[in-house]
Amino acid sequence: MNAKPYVLEQTNWKQVKNQKYDVAILPWGATEPHNYHLPYGTDSLETAKIAEQAAGKAWEKGAKVMVLPVIPLGAQNMGQIDMPFCLHTKPSTQLIILKDLLTALSRQGIKKLVLMNGHGGNDFKLLVRELQPQFPDVFISLVEWFRMIDQEDYFEEAGDHANEMETSIIMHFFPGLVRPLDEAGNGDAKAFKLEGLKNKTAWAPRQWDKVSADTGVGNPKKATAEKGKKFVDDVTTQIADYFVELAACDLGDMYE
């Protein structure tokens, strides 16, 4: 494997010392069960690879970007926390981690940070709002790749956890980590009884052990690596375009 100069874990001081980087990319996932067939690290694994692929496309267009090591610690819903090896991180802990990283990057002259979120339980907008005034010299933006484009154009089954989409992506990137789909649960999930929660008048976190017997939400049985590749190719192209634009922009002239 050739070391990629835009992936921090792969590159070296000789490369970094002689290159000015404009954008840091921080993938952030979670560690939790993903039905019977996907690895606990699904959110972190797929988000790190999507960040890497998008950064590679941007690098080829001249954008000097750097993908930081993925943070595999997400905020979980009730019910998930008690599942073995589901690693829950409080939002207040995530705030401390993010502040520490921003402190380091700001001191080092990196003035543009992209948070790449790959876990639906992470809510980074409030964290960014809290930290941005403390780091006025750093432009912080958020990319949530799983919310960017209409999944119905790529996948037949809906859902939002260990579903057809996530299964297809892991089959594409890490086929050896996916158990046979006939071993997967159907991802049947119960909804709230309250109509106001169903129609999005109100929101409340789901109690996961009451929602899903197999921890999945969405049937994964129609997943294929080919579907995952097509989705990832389109998502990373769109993200790469943003990386290129961000790397080139003047932070003092951001509005039209």
- Biggest beta sheet attributes: 4 strands, parallel
Mean pLDDT: 96
Radius of gyration: 19 Å
Percent strand: 5-15%
Total DSSP E strands: 4
End-to-end separation: 43 Å
- Note the overall shape: globular
One letter per element, helices H and strands E, the order comes to: HEHEHEHEHHHH
Structural class: alpha/beta
Helical segment tally?
A: 8
**What is the share of helical residues?**
25-40%
Low-confidence stretches: none
The spatial strand order of the largest sheet comes to 2-1-3-4
Which characteristics define this entry?
single chain, 256 residues, alpha/beta, four-stranded parallel beta sheet, 8 helices, 35% helix, 8% strand, globular
Write the layout of secondary structure elements.
Blueprint: H1 13-17, E1 23-28, H2 42-60, E2 65-67, H3 91-107, E3 112-117, H4 125-131, E4 139-144, H5 164-173, H6 195-198, H7 208-211, H8 225-248
Parallel strand pairs: 1-2, 1-3, 3-4
Helix pairs in contact: 2-5, 2-8, 5-8
Verbal overview:
By secondary structure, this protein is of the alpha/beta class. It has helices at residues 13-17, 42-60, 91-107, 125-131, 164-173, 195-198, 208-211, 225-248; strands at 23-28, 65-67, 112-117, 139-144. The protein has a four-stranded parallel β-sheet, with helices on one face. The protein has eight helices and four strands.
Short description:
The chain has 256 residues and is an alpha/beta fold. Helix content is 35%, strand content 8%.
